[in-house]
Design brief:
There is one protein chain. By secondary structure, the chain is an alpha/beta fold. It folds into two domains: 6-144, Rossmann fold (3-Layer(aba) Sandwich); 149-434, no CATH class. 42% of the residues lie in helices and 18% in strands. It contains 16 helices and twelve strands. The chain has helices at residues 6-15, 32-43, 68-78, 100-112, 149-155, 160-172, 178-194, 198-207, 210-231, 237-245, 247-252, 270-282, 315-320, 325-332, 337-354, 394-402; strands at residues 21-26, 46-51, 89-94, 116-120, 139-144, 286-292, 303-312, 359-364, 369-377, 380-387, 409-413, 424-428. The strands form two sheets. The chain has a seven-stranded mixed beta sheet with strand order 7-6-8-9-10-11-12. The chain has a five-stranded parallel beta sheet with strand order 2-3-4-1-5, sandwiched between helices. Strand 8 (359-364) and strand 9 form a beta hairpin. The protein starts with 5 loop residues before the first helix and ends in a 7-residue tail after the last strand. The model has no long low-confidence stretch (mean pLDDT 94).
């Protein structure tokens, strides 16, 4: 069983006072159902699971009056072996997007508060089948992603003590012993090639065979294409799939990683494809990094919706869009040119996305200054440059010299911890997991 950080988040929800229903959001195959089932088995005396895709007839439970007593009585008739006791039972409504009334009912479960209710499903950000009475104010939300690099290290058998030692190098900003740094960069390349989707990670842990991992990744990509075909409107189906499958070309095959509609099709324009990108965003199938015209808090005030980079929600899916040889080059550290810089940029964006940060970047065509990624925290902006080697970070250095209000920035390199100058902290790429 893969250890996941989200288990602690669910535990905090369970132990909170006056908790609401919990909606676990996230893209396909990130492990939502598995984690919730294991949590229920370990923390409740009774567990009732309804998967509306597997058991569409269970929608009848929510067809009448949506009082908790009526719904519980209907569940007891449906599952006579279940006692369904207040305070001791978790009710899990999976694939809830298939049952509008079950979504509406979350309000009444939360108000009653005798039972712990968790709901999960795909594409809950899409309005195509949104319940007419959505339970705003009666649900807590938890976003679930694929495994991050630290979770991958756990899966590979790296102990908490060893990870704690890595954190100590971050806090002290001291050089990491070369044997440790080299091994960690090796793990990081394996992680990039595998991605964080649980099935792909488990297959790699079990077999160490990237051919088997590749098979899983391509199956996952087909699943995402199915969701686009199944859930997107007729007008968006083909356009959304074209946009999605262009991401590898957008990010790895050209120097400028800005999303360009001409890469979707010859002569492509925003007028035709912008709504497709919006659909993919709401469906949790892509995430974006928006360009800002100035590096100041609040970055949203300076962000441009028409100038962005788009990423897959997990590296596993990006890998599946390219030939198997890409994984070999990553693991053997033989990538060159745009692909090497692009893949490390994608890995850093992936790590920050999984930490919940909105992503931004800066580019000035006149001065040729560019900051790869910018996030903000506690009312401050934090600029980050990503280097595929250990070259100079000219744009970041220039920014830090001219802007004394920016406390510090990170230079992430395919190298080791370096001397901090001009408030620039140089760290190995994998250290993004601990920032």
């Amino acid at each position: 069983m893969l250890k996941r950080k989200v288990t602690d988040d669910i535990k905090r929800w369970k132990n909170s006072k006056d908790k609401k229903c919990l909606i676990v959001q996230g893209a396909r195959q990130t492990g939502k159902t598995y984690i919730i089932e294991r949590f229920a088995e370990e923390n409740y005396e009774e567990f009732v699971e309804i998967n509306f895709k597997q058991m569409p007839s269970a929608m009848d439970i929510f067809a009448g009056d949506l009082t908790v007593d009526n719904m519980v009585m209907a569940m007891r008739f449906r599952f006579p072996e279940k006692k369904i006791m207040p305070g001791k039972t978790m009710i899990f409504l999976d694939e809830i997007q298939e049952c509008q009334e079950a979504i509406t009912a979350l309000k009444f479960w939360a108000t009653d508060n005798r039972f712990d209710v968790i709901a999960s499903g795909l594409l809950l950000g899409i309005d195509y089948r949104r319940a007419s009475s959505y339970p705003v104010g009666y649900v807590d939300y938890l976003k679930m992603y694929g495994l991050d690099f630290e979770e991958f290290l756990w899966a590979m058998g790296i102990s908490e003590d060893m990870i704690g030692n890595l954190r100590s190098f971050l806090s002290s900003k001291t050089m990491i012993p070369e044997a440790v740094n080299s091994q960690m960069m090796s793990y990081y390349r394996q992680y990039i090639a595998t991605g964080g989707m649980p099935e792909a990670v488990q297959k790699y842990v079990d077999t160490k065979d990237f051919r088997e991992v590749d098979r899983i990744q391509r199956s996952l990509l087909q699943g995402y294409q199915y969701d686009i075909a199944h859930y997107a409107t007729a007008e968006e189906k083909v356009k959304a799939e074209k946009c999605y499958l262009s991401l590898a070309k957008q990010l790895l095959d050209k120097e400028n990683h800005k999303f360009q509609y001409k890469e979707v099709e010859h002569g492509g324009r925003a007028q035709k494809y912008f709504s497709s990108i919006e659909w993919l965003l709401r469906a949790d199938i892509v995430h974006v990094c928006r360009r800002v015209t100035d590096i100041r808090f609040d970055l949203d005030d300076y962000a441009r919706d028409d100038f962005f980079r788009a990423y897959t929600t997990d590296l596993s899916l990006l890998m599946a869009m390219k030939d198997f040889s890409l994984k070999q080059h990553i693991v053997e550290n033989t990538l060159t040119g745009n692909s090497k810089g692009g893949i490390f940029e994608c890995a850093i964006a992936d790590a920050l996305y999984k930490k919940g940060y909105p992503l931004y970047f800066y580019k000035n065509e006149t001065t040729k200054k560019e900051i790869d990624v910018i996030i903000q925290k506690d009312g401050k902006v934090l600029p980050i440059e990503v280097k595929s080697g250990n070259t100079r970070a000219g744009s970041l250095r220039s920014l830090m010299k001219s802007r004394k209000d920016i406390c510090y920035g990170y230079k992430l390199v395919d190298g080791n911890t370096g001397e901090s100058t001009d408030r620039i902290i140089t760290l190995p790429l994998y250290m993004i997991a601990f920032i």
